[in-house]
Design a protein that fits this description.
single chain, 368 residues, alpha/beta, Rossmann fold, 2 domains, nucleotide-binding, NADP binding, NADP, Ala_DH/PNT_CS2, proton-translocating NAD(P)+ transhydrogenase activity
Length: 368
């Protein structure tokens, strides 16, 4: 019988937890021992008493020393990895492109590590897709931030003082975050448009009540992501987008590809052409931003336009984000659980092999 553990997240501002009372019960039903650092779920809204099937330990080192599998939201700090016993498994959003300093520790401690943001985008993987589940919360929160920062109503209002026209909201990028942003802005009564260089997103945008903004540039790529634009395509896109932004009140920018810098879509000149009081919320701030003016974690005001660069938006909805994230991890771990709660890592499974960034001293899965 293996022990699956989780600890309090150490990253600044991180409120989510990788194990919830729901997934704790499910693991216990599979014959797994669940071990929890005291208070691990408190800031997400889960008290220790709710983890009825788990062992609760106040000492962090004790939890780590006994873990066969460590579930985490963000990559553990080096000291925590050093406390894991050799042969342990780490599963979470490990961001290997940002945390290269952890690779030697995985090797030294002979740990197996699975970064779920590298999960292949297949139908079978949907129940384990942490990028999609967390992006939905991020898109929702981004629109609420925009509505709070904007000096105007989102819906059309007819009042004794006259009629207020609805805000014009443009969502750039029609992935999961963008589609959730479109749906949320529509619910708030705004006039909503969605823009994406992948033409296949038109139907999704329109199904949510948004209007597809066609700038005459198509960049359909592989794996659900857009291919890089050519210089001519980028110039045409920027020319037409700059003209369109002059009539937009709010932009929610969501265009990003994991592990790569975010594409620069909104130039400083475009911002200068927007109306005073306009707001840009840039979800891609963590990877450089879709706007040239974006500063991660900060607000920038230029020519009367506010550019917001929020970080870790999913953590703002920690309770529901944790519930979804924990289910993703539970479903992925299920690929490795044999009868009676034993652990077996099936590297012949494309989902397991595709996410493995270290395996008992090696920096990739055998044969990957």
């Amino acid at each position: 019988m293996i022990t699956v553990a989780t600890i309090r997240e150490q990253s600044e501002g991180e409120r989510r937890v990788a194990l919830t009372p729901e997934t704790c019960r499910k693991l216990a039903a599979k014959g797994v021992t669940v071990l929890l650092e005291s208070g691990a779920g408190r800031v997400a809204g889960f008290e220790d008493a709710e983890y009825g099937d788990a062992r609760i330990e106040a000492d962090r080192a004790t939890v780590l020393a006994q873990a066969d599998v460590l579930l985490c939201v963000q990559a553990p700090v080096p000291a925590d990895l050093q406390s894991l016993k050799p042969g342990s498994v780490v599963i979470g959003a490990l961001a290997p492109h940002r945390n290269g300093n952890l690779s030697p520790i995985y090797g030294e401690r002979r740990l197996s590590a699975f970064a779920l943001e590298k999960l292949p985008r297949t139908t079978r993987a949907q129940a384990m897709d942490i990028l999609s589940s967390q992006a939905g919360m991020a898109g929702y929160k981004a629109v609420l931030i925009a509505a709070q920062r904007a000096p105007r109503f989102f819906p059309m209002l007819t009042t004794a003082a006259g009629t207020i026209r609805p805000s014009k909201v443009l969502v750039i990028g029609a992935g999961v975050a963008g589609l959730q942003a479109i749906a949320t802005a529509k619910r708030l009564g705004a006039q909503v448009e969605g823009f994406d260089v992948r033409p296949e997103t038109r139907e999704q945008i329109e199904s949510l009540g948004g209007r597809f903004l066609d700038l005459g540039v198509s960049a359909a790529g592989e794996g659900g992501y857009a291919r890089p634009l050519t210089d001519d395509e980028r110039a045409l896109q920027q020319q037409r987008l700059a003209e369109h932004l002059k009539g937009v009140d709010v932009i929610v920018a969501t265009a990003a590809v994991p592990g790569r810098p975010a594409p620069k879509i909104i130039t400083t000149a475009m911002v200068a052409g927007m109306r005073r009081g306009s707001v840009i919320v840039d979800l891609a701030a963590e990877s450089g931003g879709n706007c040239e003016l974006t500063l991660p974690g900060e607000d920038v005001e230029r020519d009367g336009v506010t550019v917001v660069g929020p970080l870790n938006l999913a953590s703002m909805g920690a309770l529901h984000a944790s519930e979804m994230y924990a289910r993703n991890l539970f479903n992925f771990l299920g690929l490795m659980l044999a009868d009676g709660g034993a652990l077996r890592i099936p590297f012949d499974d494309e989902l397991v092999a595709g996410t493995c960034i270290a395996h008992e001293g090696a920096e990739s899965a055998p044969g990957a």
